[in-house]
Design goal:
348 residues; mainly alpha; 13 helices; 67% helix
Amino acid sequence: MPIRFCTDDLRGPLITLAQFLLTAIVTVPDFISPSAGFRSLYLRPRAIPLRSWVVYTAFFISVNLLNNWAFAYKISVPLHIILRSGGPVASMIIGYIFNAKRYTRGQMLSVLMLTLGVVAAALADARAKGQSVNVQGASTMSTMTGFTVLAVAMVLSAFQGIYADRLYEKYGRNHWKEALFYSHVLSLPLFLPTYPQVATQWRALLLSHTSNGPALSRDSTATKGNCGSPCIASIANKIIQLSVLKLDPDPSQLILAAIPTRLMYLVINALTQYLCIRGVHLLSAKTSSLTVTIVLNIRKLASLLLSIYIFGNSLAPGILVGALLVFLGGALYGYEGARGRKSHLKKE
């Protein structure tokens, strides 16, 4: 499920760095080998050459940074979702042109249905919550620049998928953990230019209020924003209240109460993003890049429906229409894939 912070001061490189750092830390034990020696940085031999992971990482970090950068041009969240839902279309076009992929009419229809479904659901959800696709005060030039940034990210993501497909076809499809590890570790040095901004956001985070106390700074509560869609704060606050607000707290609860709330949000967000990206890498090793983008589109809608249920929001008719299109498109794509595999087996 996509998780967003309710505080504007925690948006930006700090969140992205936390996600990358946590993923690198969690995955590094699988690759540590003391016998490999210092020249290999004590990392066990790779199944895929390092230069290939450098290229893959360049695609990976570029897509992440561009998607985050788009918000600087006042691209609204609904428009962000709508534009990124074109991933399967971009993947199909790039695969056709650069990877000699051929698709049936059923597959093309399923991708069209999926894309239209996510767009319809995102628009309906935005209207139901009183959100606008266009951010107030955003100029046409700013919106077009943000649109261009997202379009470039979408195209690069399609090329990343094709490159991953070729790597797995050449070296085998059991190396997704290696992709997960190196794509995050090799990305960490690229955060050095953002150090001043990360340091500022980190200080603001440490000055935020604790789960049972006021803010440590008069300015720390001035940056609270409104969540038009489900955010991590509303969930984490419930967890914190249940664990802290007891008559006879034990030492662990006292420690929990002393930790800044936004630090908890940051850790929870990084953990959920790790689980998400882990699943994406596993899926990309087992299926085609087009299938991955389609599954991610279906996940977006499932996340939207789940958030509506959890937070008690109204289920607009447009969301139901979008859901129907997405699930029918997903079923059609699955059927076409199964039919293609059967015909391939018959030929053999």
